[in-house]
Each structure stands twice: as structure tokens, then as C-alpha cells.
Amino acid sequence: MEARDGLSKVRAVERAMAILRAFSPAASRLSLAELTRHTGLDKSTTRRLLQTLATAEFIEFDDSTKTYALGPGILLLVPGVRYGSDLRDIAAPILARLSERTGATSFIWTYFRGFALCLDRVKGPDLHIVTPWSAIGTRIAMNCAGGPRVLLAFLPREERAHVLSGPLPRHTVHTVTDPAALEAAADDIRQRGWEFAVDDYTLGLSGLGAPVFDHAGALAGSISITALTPQFAMQDGKPRDLPLVLEAAAEISARLGR
């Protein structure tokens, strides 16, 4: 099989990757039938690949539920991932301080192939709910949530148009899915330099985000905090914690410029 760049592909590897990518925070355990449905492979091929992946502990099988999950072998690969490491390392102590000062969960996001990718997060002490969608490594659509919507707004126009031409899922009644409305919102976000997204990804949760830039002034990512919507106190029509978020974003940008 030939790839678009002219390099040959190994079909078995492609199929194994499809199985691994079928798992997500929302689907951490899958049956054989579910995996065949996700990947489009037949059961015999899927079972053989699962057995092979299990020998390297990339997959584990729960005999009581007859389901599969990602295994500890995957975690052994994580320390070797360098993507976004500079941004993550710089942001880590700033995220921790931001969560401590606001009581919210803080995030650092980057743009990755049409999605917002969570590079790191620090859980807020006041957010006592399960949010599997916010795990490190999670990709979410950019038409919702404070940090991802900031990324969308500051993307180059051609790249933003590409994102807006793709799937724009609706998560709640407050999710914006109209490309024209999102383009107009992007103009507003760029002008004010931040975004406050209310209940548009999960009802009852809101996010406040701001952009992060590199030494050349190009978009490097975004920072955001998430908390229960009623916990966002407002002052003069803006979230009271906005100065703290902007300060954190500016500090990360300054350190990237060194």
C-alpha cells in the first residue's frame, strides 16, 4: 500500500493503530464487537491484533466483562513523547499557581490537526466532579470551550477556514455549530484577547481562555480555567478571574520568548 507521500505503509501496523485509537476517555473499555465496529475490521483480524498487542501490554483484557482496554505498555511510551514538551514544561508551575489562586482546573492547549489538544492540566481543588474529557492528550473540537475557541480565533485564516469546514459537533444547546457565527465570534475574541464559554461543552461548566504566543509572536497555544458556571463571579460584565488568566498567559508567552 502506498501512502500519499509515496512511502509504503504496513497494513498490519495501520490496523493495530486503528484499534489503539478506538479507545478514548469516554470509551476506555470496549468489547470485541465494539472494536470491530469502530475499526471496520472483521472479528478474526481484530482478535489476532488484540492478542499481539496484549503480549506487549499495549492492550489488556478483562475476562469478567469480556472487554479490552489500553494497557500499561502505552504509559511506558509517554515519557518519550517530545511534542509540546517545551510549552508544557514552562506552563506547568504557572497552571498550578493559577488553579490555586482561582480554585478552578487549569489547562494548556495546543492546535493539532484540526483539534485542540490538551497538553497538561492541573485539577482545581473546588471541582469535585469527574471530567474524563479533559484528560491530558484529549482532543476536542474547537467550536466550544474557552481554550479551544481561543485557538480557533487566533489560527491563520486559511487554517481556521479548514477547521470550520469540518465536523462541528453539538454538545449542548449552547454549542455554536454555524461556521459564519464562529467566524464572527473569532473576530470578537481576537479583538478582546480572551473568551468566556458558558455551558457550551458540558452543561454546568464554563471555561475562560486566553492565547499564548511564542518568541516570534505566533500562536503557540492557549491557557484556560474551567469551573462550575455559578463559581465564575462576574465584575463589570467580565469574569473576576480574567486578570489572573491573562497574567498567566502573558507569563507563559514571556518565558517562551527567552
Strand line-up in the sheet with most strands: 5-4-3-8-7-6
Overall pLDDT confidence: 89
The general outline is: globular
**How would a textbook summarize the main sheet?**
6 strands, antiparallel
Poorly predicted sequence stretches spanning 5 or more consecutive residues = 1-7
Output the helix-strand order: HHHEEHHEEEHHHEEEEEH
Quickly give the structural class.
alpha+beta
Keywords:
alpha+beta, single chain, two-stranded antiparallel sheet, globular, disordered N terminus, 9 helices, six-stranded antiparallel beta sheet, 258 residues
Provide an overview of this structure:
With 258 residues, the protein is an alpha+beta fold. It is 39% helix and 21% strand. It is built from nine helices and ten strands. The chain has helices at residues 11-21, 32-39, 43-55, 72-75, 85-102, 146-154, 157-164, 179-192, 242-256, and strands at residues 59-62, 67-70, 105-112, 115-122, 139-140, 195-198, 205-213, 219-228, 234-235, 238-239. The strands form three sheets. It has a six-stranded antiparallel β-sheet, sandwiched between helices. The radius of gyration is 20 Å and the shape is globular.
Topology:
Elements: H1 11-21, H2 32-39, H3 43-55, E1 59-62, E2 67-70, H4 72-75, H5 85-102, E3 105-112, E4 115-122, E5 139-140, H6 146-154, H7 157-164, H8 179-192, E6 195-198, E7 205-213, E8 219-228, E9 234-235, E10 238-239, H9 242-256
Helix pairs in contact: 1-3, 5-9, 6-8
